[in-house]
Amino acid sequence: MSVLQGGDIADLVSQTLQELNPLRWTEIATDLQEHVAARELLRKSRVTFQSGYGIKWSVMTDHSNAARNVGLFSTDNVNVGDVMTTAEIPWRHTNSHYAFERREIKMNREPARIVELLKIRRADAMISMAEKLEANFWSQPTSSSDKLDPFGVDYWIVPAVNGEDPGFYDGSGVTGGGNPYGFSAGAGGLSSATYNRWSNWCADYTTIDKTDLIRKWREAATKTRFMSPTEIPALGTATDFGYYTNYNVIGRLEEVLEAQNDNLGSDIASQDGRLLFRRVPVMWVPYLDSYTGPAGTSAPTTADPIYGINWGVFKPCFLEGEYMVEEGPEKAANQHTTYHVQVDMTYNFLCYNRRKLFRLDKVSA
After folding, report:
1. DSSP assignment of 74-126, as one string?
2. Which CA distances in Å does 156 have to 82, 279, 350, 351?
3. What is the DSSP-derived secondary structure letter of residue 193?
4. CA atoms within 13 A on the CB side of 242
5. pLDDT score, position 265
6. Which pLDDT score is estimated for 19?
7. Is the pLDDT of residue 145 over 70?
8. What does the radius of gyration of the chain's CA atoms come to, in whole angstroms?
9. What is the pTM of this model?
10. Domain boundaries of the chain, sorted by first residue
């Protein structure tokens, strides 16, 4: 006699519900293990709020070289230089939403309810928002004509050109770290060709070891630590570094960490999850596992980036009152039993001081 299970009996299947763990479900809606950008963006300590039709701030690009060595009774030579300019970026808008039909809610009641329908619909909208934020944060618009995409980290932190010297943009020895690809006017409307100091530190590497990647990483962290010689009301004076990369880098660095430890014990992965750089955790960004370089036809093909982001000068900026606004439910036009809920953000990513940021890239031949 063949063996029967409950699912093989047609009447039983059609007339009986399986145990469905009421009001709970399994979520496998995304391929990303973690949404790092969404987590960082929703930390109020790293967010700023502004009003107006765009985001604008002042930048001191130089000093007037007024100081000089003098002798007794020397004649004064007073000059006033133009040392200030402004940077500006526009607002960008991101929307998610969900909808329901009035009669769905009445059907989705006890005792027939298995899961709460509105919670599913809202979770769907929020997961979609988190996915979009992740893509927006770790990328840049394709060109200056793109009026939709926010100015993510690739707009502000430009990679090195293959084979050039490490450092800040200077237009000759170092041409990376300058204007974002597709934006000849420069980040925030300031061109690095005009203002060389308006650039980020950058370098290429070929191997993940102490003499290549780690040596350049140490140099980057040291040379982006700028401190003003005088007390001024500067934007973003705090030093709050975060280091972000993909699993290719994380995994290899954990092996380097194990190799320098003579007392590993019996744990074959004793250093997993303990990776630090200058006592700051190095964060895995799943989105960067498939990273190939900045947007734009002239951008170099890069891989395995390491971003050094100083959250004292790099800020998600939201329009005041437009921070994850959930509005509704509102009745849909021409559908009198259908309602929708909208979730909106008006924001952009801004950097007050690009030379406090850096990146390292493994560049393909």
Report:
1. PPP-------EEEEEEE-EEEEEEEEEEHHHHHHS-TTT-SS-HHHHHHHHHH
2. 25, 25, 8, 7
3. T
4. 16
5. 55
6. 47
7. yes
8. 27
9. 0.84
10. 44-53+83-363
